[in-house]
Prior knowledge:
Helix content of chain A: 25-40%
Largest interface: A-B, 76 and 83 residues
Distance between the termini of chain A: 61 Å
Shape of chain B: globular
CATH topology of the largest domain in chain A: DNA polymerase, domain 1
Structural class of chain B: alpha+beta
Number of helices of chain B: 18
CATH superfamily of the largest domain in chain B: Aldehyde oxidase/xanthine dehydrogenase, molybdopterin binding domain
Oligomer: heterodimer
CATH architecture of the largest domain in chain A: Orthogonal Bundle
Radius of gyration of chain B: 26 Å
Order of helices and strands of chain A: EHHEEHEEEHHHH
Strand content of chain B: 15-25%
Number of domains of chain B: 3
Helix content of chain B: 25-40%
Structural class of chain A: alpha+beta
Bound molecules: FE2/S2 (inorganic) cluster
Strand order of the largest sheet of chain B: 3-4-1-12-9-10-11
Number of domains of chain A: 2
Strand content of chain A: 5-15%
Largest sheet of chain B: 7 strands, mixed
CATH class of the largest domain in chain A: Mainly Alpha
Largest sheet of chain A: 5 strands, mixed
CATH class of the largest domain in chain B: Alpha Beta
CATH architecture of the largest domain in chain B: 2-Layer Sandwich
Number of helices of chain A: 7
Amino acid sequence: MKPISRRSFLERSGTGMAAAAAIPALEAPTFQSRPLPAEERGREIHLKVNGKDHRLEVEDHWTLAEVLRDHLGLTGTRVGCDRGECGACTVLLDGKSLYSCSYLAVWAEGKEISTVEGLAEGTQLDPLQEAFIEHDGPQCGFCTSGQLMSAKALLNSNPNPTEAEARQALAGNICRCSNFNRYLEAVLATSGKGGSRG
Amino acid sequence: MVEELKTVGHSTPRIDGLQRVTGRATYSADVQLPNMLYARVLRSPHPHARILGIDVARALAAPGVKAILTHENCRLVWSSGDRVNKRYLFNNPVRFVGDAVAALAATNRHLAEEALKLIQVEYETLDFVLDAEEALQPGAVEIHPGGNLSPIISFRSTEPGKREPSTYVRGDLEKGFAASDFVFEDRYVSKHVNNAQMEPRVALAHWEGDKLTVWTPTQGIANCHRDIARDLNLALEKVRVVCQYMGGGFGNKNQCQDTDLMAAQLAKETGRPVKLELSRKEDFVCVHGRWPTSQNYKVGVLKDGTLQAIQMRGYSGMGPYRKSGGGISGVEYFRCPNVKTEIYPAYTNMAVSANFRGPPYPQGVFGIASILDHIAHELKIDPVDFYLKNVTRKFRDSIPYTSSGLLECIRQGAKLFEWKKRWHPAGSQQGPIKTGIGLAAGGFGASVGRSSAVLRLDSEGRLWLHVGVTDIGTGAKTTMALIAAEAMGIDMDKVRVISGDTDRTPYSVGESGSRTTSYTGYAIVEAAKDLKQQLAASGPPQGDEVLIAEATPSPRLEGKVRYSFAVHFVEVEVDTELGGVRVLKYLAVHDSGRIINPLTATSQVQGGVIQGLGMALHEELLYDENTGIPLNPGYYGARVMTHVDVPNVEVHFVETEDAYGPFGAKAVGEPPIVPVVGAVANAVFNAIGKRIKELPITRDKIIGAVS
Lengths: 198, 707
Ligand code: FES
Ligand code: FES
């Protein structure tokens, strides 16, 4: 095979290849929230998410998960069941873990919400995130955001949990890839208690 | 022991770990397009009914509704939804609770859900049957014309289409039983359990002119691409399938899903992008789970435990549509001169059953491992010795394996587990809390075959690897990068993986059957050979130049069979008063050839074991026998394993040398679930001295057995 110019190859293989090459930056993705059509008019609320203020119009029955994902573009909060069984949608509300699929957006008025997108500071990962990579926490990764946020809530209130305490705190976060023990290792390693089997 | 390599074989964090822990990984449901509509599906409340009429007028007039599909205006066939019968997107009659009746697109998901309630359907209910053996009784309601025995579709079968049980015979069963000192008979039953992957099914379809793009979670963009093009009667180049990140499937995202086709059709009719989302309950009932089985065994042995004859007659409940084989496997792990297995896959009005990790094995191993453990107990032979004597040396006692670490897995495992020290005769402990140990062996085909890879080396020394994998959680992207780095002799940080998009990657075998490493990984090795020759001939690329190499090898095994093997050892504690079973110690010993990435391979094994524990101890999709309605779809009802249920799982690899696959790597993902249920059932027997013959091994069954 002869060397061919990169340009011609890029054209043949479609666009978007250059984007895949870039090392992903950690700043928030840009997202344009859409104006509500007439049939969806609701009430205006104020949400504080990852330290940023948002004013938006929501309908009373919209869940927090739905607003975060569809209206603020924060899709790192996953929805695995939409009925409070799996924990994929876990976020922090005033520092405590919460299933955002089972909480209405209007209830979050004036409260502080943290999502997985807010864990890293600038380009600096949270120690939990680093440990999750190092200990191979995510297999498919769909439960990962929820595991991270529950772990964060745990370490906020109990910086040195025992293994039993950590398992209990994460009990509401199912991982069907069943990488539970990896997640646990990562949490205990972050808490400075790696390997303790209390 | 395999020779050490530079990159392959060293624990390496996933190359996309950063995206996964920052929430930036884009799963199919995360994609939003301007002007997008949301779709929902109306489903049958009856297990079997004829639709007499559908009135969509009120729903069509509801706010935001743009289009509705029913069997009256949409006759598309979903070909991968049934390999025998014509399965339409919308069927009449409907054949299980959850069968699709209509799909509707509206400007948001709430309006779509509201409008569904306005569709009026008139049903005439029909008799229904839930159990496979009952479905085969004379007089049972026919779910498809021609009866409920589903025909042979096995890949290897010489007579596909015949309405006969799938049968395998070697030797002469009657002679074998006549030559036996003892003959044992028993029956084992396994249940329908759902794959329950965390990411529910979703599909986003978008037409640009006559080109269709579908964002969908799939285990194989190439399969899905082909399926969608075929069912919509489009040329392959008019369809693009994208799946950048994928939230698990364990077999239920192998094929195109009906949702892909419904979204495409609704998008076509409305001229707008359409996103169709399944609820968790729909995902449990309307995609598929593992097929339930009943297995009848008759086994003849000599006094010293040597197997003489094995007969198995089994029934698999496939639900009303035949998506996959329905086999019951496990007998082939044992050498025995006289064998006959007969499997009857039957249509029922339960949820559809098809592939779930290690498809025919966990349930089959439960059966055969249980009866053999029982025989070892009756003959007072230590199970480890029984296994060493009887496990397979050649596939079906005739075809050599390319490599086998099975005996070594048993030996090393027994030592690491301290089997002899922990062993006690079954039921010999006093007091209400008893411990017991058990083992089981199994494996999974590590086939080789056709797949492709494209390598592109630029003047900055970056190696762009184009492979059609989606990475279902196995770490395939990382595995592919490791293989490429090793084959080219470069560092991992020079490798860029382009994957998950049929417009940008060549064909890759679907990520099912533990094939990706052996198939696509091997294509990378072959492409790298070409690239290295080009480098040697023309030197490294300069400026705008790139070097490109492509390979699509179709390796063959030349009269051999290639298998990965697994032997699992478990110790349980059983509370005979409360019925609870707790796993105290678990050791999984695997021969998967060379391990490409010990970090992710260990995670795979741990995950498979824990899924297997759920199947052994908790999970079952229950039905109300009077109404044919599923009672417990969802995580809570299925009682899948959680952080507080899981034991520590020790993983040990016996790395055998194998002449095939990339650097001798064999299958990793499927095998770990295979022996789990059998091993746990045997450990429970060892603890309480009573055998539980029907899954799952729940409290009521333990208490029933000991009282
Ligand atoms: S998505 Fe909220 S608990 Fe499952
Ligand atoms: S990593 Fe797949 S569900 Fe947890």
